[in-house]
Amino acid sequence: MSLVQQLNQKALAKGVPLSVHLDVTYRCNERCEHCYLEHDDRGEMSTAEIRTLLDQLANAGVFFLTLSGGEPLVRLDCFEIIEYARSLQFNVKLKTNAILIHEKEAQRLKRLGVEQIQISLYSHRAEIHDGITKVQGSLDRTLEGIRVLRSLGLKVSIANVLMRSNSNDSESVRALAAEFGAHYTLDPTITPMIDGRRDVLRFRASASEVSDVFHNAALVGDLEEFCTPPAAVDDSIREGLPCSAGHTACYISPYGDLYPCVQFPLACGNVRRQAFAEIWRDSPQLREVRSIRGKDLETCSVCSHLGTCTRCPGLAYMEGNMRGPSSVDCEKSFIRTGIPSAGMMAGATNGSISARSLVQIQLPA
Amino acid sequence: MSEKYIARSASVAARLLDGEMIIMSAVDSTLFSLSDVATAIWQSADGRTPLSSIVRDSICAQFDVSAEVAYRDAEAFTEKLASHGILRVSDRPITDEDSIPVLS
Q: What pLDDT, on the 0 to 100 scale, is given for residue B50?
């Protein structure tokens, strides 16, 4: 067992929130067509509130801290927040579009010891990338940000979201990442809007486009391993946890609302009204999430994919049942292996969550 | 024997988790889990206290080990952490801003 696995097991046993994702703003300098956020400022936490929160997170044992948004660097105090987080010795990861990163900002991130900068890149072609971000020149600016960060030796991870409009560009973006010496991730997940609107789902890559990616060794590695039919489900899988959300990880919005994960809009409390540790320990919602094991999942507990599915409890929750299947992940398991999921067989999913009622994060009025 | 001074690097991430110090090197992202003895050394690595004093006051006073063995182990440990950029080792006090305090 690796040290990271040991660390996770220990955190789980001790109830320690090892990882926290904190969105410091929902404001952004891009308007990506598939984005689930609403970008107006509804009363973000102040610098002082975030400093107090970071103190609480450090005391609770949080080690991995992801700062994101919106675009976090549109906050004028973003570097002050990062600096304070690093003084508390968090392992800090920054998610950004890098548009505001020039030599000076990169030098500062380097000096502050930020572990990794994750940057969204949709295509190597300006007409596609800028078409998605709705900001002319954004590809050039993002690439320049990546270049300057890498020139200083900072770790960069390029996040490539797979959509209809860029489904032919994944290999080229991966090659670009390799050229920069950056890590590359490809994610086909598009989630409904934060206000519940579902029109952004039309940007999702089609099943055949996802299939092309899932059967491309250049993108997924060992095809035989990636596409292999699931192994038999045993007791360790049935007794296992669906994912780390709410167990060793959680998400906090710019307004102080705490959720199990950025993709799991089950409100558990607000750090402006209650101490983080109290919410983490006592929230009935988190307790419910923590009580769920593989064997408790309706439909999925008897699915042959149970041990290998990427089932997201948050996406299942958005579809109306945190113990139910996540149709997107049912589709992914099917596309990957050719074996229908129990959810598909039972008709629990119809291949599109657009037909379902959705639960979403509640924004301040 | 020349004196040695050790200072925690500002570029690492660290957290005390149930009595065990977890440290990640910013140089190579290696994750370390320190034993209780190593944690005591890490927490005392302020750049000003000589390693021999740390061994005497923080190790021998708390753990059942001879000063000679403890110093030899502490030297090996500090060299290893220094190779990952986690500690700085010098033959004179380290007082610059590259050292930062650890959380209590």
A: 94
User: Least CB-CB distance to A89: which of B15, B17, B20?
Assistant: B15
What tokens were used for A109? 């991130």
On chain A, the residues whose CB falls within 8 A of the CB of B20 are 10
Tally of CB atoms within 10 A around A190: 20
Q: Are A259 and A251 in contact (CB under 8 A)?
A: yes
Q: How far is B104 from chain A (nearest CA, A)?
A: 9
Residues in chain A within 8 Å Cβ distance of B34: none
Pick the CATH number of B5-90 from 3.40.190.290, 3.90.930.60, 3.40.50.2000, 3.40.50.10300: 3.90.930.60
Give mean pLDDT in consecutive 10-residue pieces for chain A, a chain of 365 residues: 87 95 97 92 96 97 96 98 96 98 97 95 98 97 98 97 95 96 93 83 92 90 89 89 93 97 94 98 97 93 91 91 92 92 76 45 60
Name residue A208's amino acid.
S
Question: Model's pTM, two decimal places?
Answer: 0.90
DSSP state at residue A362? P
Return d(Cα A307, Cα A228) in angstroms, integer: 12
The helix/strand/coil state of A17 is coil
Tell me, what's the pLDDT at A323? 94
Contact A92 B13 (CB under 8 A): yes
Contact B83, B27 (CB under 8 A): no
B13 interaction partners in chain A (CB closer than 8 Å): 63, 89-92, 113, 115
